[in-house]
Amino acid sequence: MRTRNFAVMAAAVVLAGLLAACGGGKNGGSAPGIVIDESNQTKADSVIEVKARNFEFDQTEYRVKTGAVKFHFVSEEGVHGIRIPKTGIELRDGQTVTVTFENPGEYEIVCNIPCGTGHSKMFAKLIVEA
């Protein structure tokens, strides 16, 4: 009985640690050097519109300069969303977010809503240049 209680307590501690690690900080889980403003009050240096239709984005590559960028997502056909791993960016149809990139880098853009047989091939690249 004592061993079982210890195992349950240990599992609870591990679970609490995992949940704490997944929790977003002030940047909502973004990498250092990336600041997300979901209120869109930050003045953007540029605007990027990402459009999706069944199993593809309108571009295979999006290029922006470091600084504040306003992302707007539009699902033109089907039901799609986007996630840009390691940035904290997640958008659904019609949503906009302003993101400040302090450093250059490359990121993958993926559809984050299962949309059918071509879903696994639905990705593009975001290149942030100096």
TrEMBL record:
The keyword Signal applies. Gene3D superfamilies: Cupredoxins - blue copper proteins (2.60.40.420). SUPFAM superfamilies: Cupredoxins. InterPro entries: Cupredoxin (IPR008972). Residues 1-20 form the signal peptide. Keywords: Signal. The keyword Signal applies. This is Heme/copper-type cytochrome/quinol oxidases, subunit 2. It comes from Thermobacillus composti (strain DSM 18247 / JCM 13945 / KWC4).
